[in-house]
Each structure stands twice: as structure tokens, then as C-alpha cells.
Write a sequence for this structure.
């Protein structure tokens, strides 16, 4: 499955400096949408970059500050869905991926056999069952093929499906009691449609 990033990636100082107790902005974007939820965490840069280390410092979301930002700079504040019950580590907060996954048929996206809530017509998924939940932007009226293809099962709407039109912006809180120093910011996305877990990271510095 490839090499461990914690073993083969050299430190890459970003120049980003955050303060203890500060609310900071973080972004992520989708290429292939598998639903699920995500979390931001910290691990001291000098420590082994293990899941155990990152689980010690999960970051709390500022729950009224979730936004979508399109590639043209347009932003939309949305009501995020956050979960802190039954989570790991206990009491930590995860955010739901706010972009609804588009389902295709009974063979390609993990739906039960005989699933009829979504069908393909002319290469385009149609029917309300094609999306996991209502898109967060009111003007999303349906799905269209991923350019440059004219027909494809890899589709997106204005804020749905395999959405490459923008990014998801959140604010998280740096703990006020955290020790100053160099840290690795970890982002973990646990997919719902599959057993996949995606991770990304960035080097940051935290000061008093």
C-alpha cells in the first residue's frame, strides 16, 4: 500500500505560526467523494508520528464557522454536522463531510442488491436516491459529468458528488494549555462508503 509518510517524508516547514488558544482556519478538498467524516489533530514534531500520538491532541471545531469556498472565491456559510458522542478518542469531535455522495447503481457504489433509488439515464444519474442528503447550496439542481467527459459515472453538482469546484473550510481551536513548539497538523478522513482512511499533514509552529 506504499511507504509510511511518517517514515519517508522529510520535514517541510510551512512558516505557519499559530498561538495557543487561537482559532485557526483549515481547508480540505475532495477528488473522489466517499462520504464519512473527518478530524484535525496535532502531534509534536519530535515525537513518532503515530495514530496514538495524534489521538492525544484532537482539535475542537468552531461549529458555527463551516463554509464552502468555490474556486472562483465565492463562499457560503453552512450549518455543519458535528459528532462528539461515541467517537474515538472519547469525547473528541468529528465533522461530517458536508458534500453529499452521489450513488450510482447496485454494483458500482456499494448499494444493496436491487437498489432502485438511483438510475442512469444517458450517462447521468437521476432520481432523489442518487444523493446521500440534500446538498448544502440551494442552487445545486443535479449532477453533470465530470469534464471533459460527456457521459460518466464520475459526476458532481455545484456542491455535491465528486466535488472539485471548491474546498471545505473550517475553524479549529488550538488548546490554550498546549506547550509551544513545532507540531505536525494531521487531517484524517474516515470514509463511509468504503473502508478507506485518508490522511494529510502539515508542519506548523505553535507559540504562547
Amino acid at each position: 500500500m506504499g511507504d509510511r509518510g511518517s517514515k519517508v517524508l522529510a520535514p517541510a516547514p510551512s512558516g505557519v505560526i499559530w498561538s495557543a488558544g487561537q482559532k485557526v482556519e483549515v481547508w480540505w478538498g475532495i477528488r473522489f467523494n466517499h462520504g464519512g467524516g473527518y478530524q484535525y489533530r496535532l502531534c509534536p514534531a519530535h515525537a513518532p508520528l503515530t495514530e496514538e500520538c495524534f489521538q492525544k491532541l484532537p482539535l475542537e471545531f468552531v461549529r458555527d464557522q463551516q463554509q464552502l469556498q468555490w474556486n472562483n472565491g465565492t463562499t457560503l456559510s453552512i450549518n455543519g454536522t458535528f459528532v462528539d458522542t461515541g467517537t474515538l478518542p472519547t469525547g473528541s469531535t468529528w465533522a461530517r463531510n458536508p458534500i453529499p455522495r452521489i450513488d450510482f447503481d447496485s454494483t458500482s457504489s456499494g448499494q444493496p442488491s436491487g437498489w432502485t433509488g438511483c438510475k442512469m439515464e444517458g450517462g447521468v444519474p437521476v432520481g432523489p436516491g442518487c444523493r446521500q442528503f440534500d446538498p448544502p447550496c440551494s442552487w445545486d439542481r443535479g449532477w453533470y459529468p465530470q469534464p471533459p467527459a460527456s457521459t460518466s459515472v464520475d459526476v458532481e453538482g455545484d456542491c455535491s458528488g465528486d466535488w472539485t469546484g471548491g474546498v471545505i473550510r473550517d475553524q479549529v481551536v488550538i488548546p490554550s494549555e498546549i506547550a509551544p513548539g513545532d507540531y505536525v497538523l494531521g487531517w484524517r478522513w474516515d470514509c463511509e462508503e468504503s473502508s478507506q482512511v485518508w490522511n494529510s499533514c502539515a508542519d506548523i509552529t505553535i507559540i504562547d
Q: What stands out?
A: The CA atoms of residues 64 and 115 lie 36 Å apart.
